[in-house]
What does this fold into?
Amino acid sequence: MRITLGVLVLGAMLALVAACASTQGSSGSAGPRLSQLPPVSSPADNPTTPDKVALGAKLWIEPRLSGSGKMACTGCHVREKGWTDGLALSRRDNGDLNTRHSPTMYNVGYATTFYWDGRAATLEAQVLAAWRAQMSADPAKASAAIAAVPAYAAEFQKVFGGPPTPDTIVKALSAYLRTKVSGLSPWDRYEMGDKSAVSADARAGFDLFMGKGRCAVCHTPPVYTDFNFHNIGLEAGKPKPDLGRGAVTKNAQDNAAFKTPTLRSVAISGPYFHDGSGATLERAVRYMASGGANDPNKSPMLVDTKLNDREIAQLIAFLSALTSDERYAPPALP
Ligand code: HEC
Ligand code: HEC
It folds into this structure.
């Protein structure tokens, strides 16, 4: 098991390195590599361009998009918290408490379904839904507020050849989110040949992650997710369990299954899990390593791997080496 998985992943990594080497950098071929991850593709009707991304970066922090005029997307997806918000559950713009934890935006461009339960099929559909629900916005009204700002009107004209509309606002936000690709972490630097980039514990933790701990079965490198849905037992015993993926597919076997999160920068993105119930990274790792709570529907791929305290600490050292520090400076708003 251990060897097969290791070989598989090594093959995948080599393929990726080759892919990255040939497509490296929008700024030129000779620059330093900024990420180990492959390029993100964009839909035919919304190609990613630098100008569109720059516009989306403004809209991302723009409170004019919300019903109250006070909430921006970044209110619940904060850079310093790994694009999450540090809360188990957050309050929407209208004051309602969310029922699920704010997920990270890291590597969302690689996903093929969106939300914890995958109910949105495209990023654009997801962004429109978040705009309405989380920001209590009427997209037509909010678009008019953006259109009333001359600098925005000019920028939309340049990027889309037309005024701000719900459609173009969603497109700019989605293009921006597709650039949220994890940059290099110490672990990536280690894999690229810098043997001093991580500790011996982190290296031991990686071996556990790939082998005895069986984590990579679902958290598959290099994005550290399989983009699939699994029941890990978190709804067991709750009076009104969240059906998660099951409510979308109407298949009882999917009940309480949720999307596997990327583990890149996971050390800064607590609390954890779809319900925010994992208060610390150590608790989340211990929960996963113990095989999770007893739920008849729990994934058979999650088992008690009987790791000792030292091995848990090594897993945490490895996960902490997956934190990247890409540059981020919020743009000025017009
Ligand atoms: C009040 C907090 C809050 C605000 C504000 C907010 N979000 Fe979210 N976001 C969430 C929560 C909670 C979820 C998960 C909901 C679920 O899965 O049911 C989520 C999920 C997402 C996802 C899906 C990620 C994935 O891995 O599938 C994207 C993309 C996203 N939000 C983008 C946005 C954008 C764009 C905005 C602004 C228009 C926004 N969010 C505003 C809380 C928020
Ligand atoms: C059966 C597939 C599977 C296996 C095996 C697995 N995970 Fe997970 N992991 C998931 C899913 C699915 C979630 C999110 C589930 C939820 O919130 O309901 C998750 C969540 C997590 C989280 C929380 C991330 C966040 O952003 O909230 C951490 C940390 C984690 N796993 C680490 C591990 C470690 C370490 C191992 C090995 C000991 C492991 N996982 C094994 C599927 C798996």
User: Anything to note?
Assistant: The first helix runs from residue 2 to 23. Strands lie at 229-230, 258-259. Residues 129 and 181 are 22 Å apart (CA to CA). Residues 1-29 have pLDDT under 50 and may be disordered.
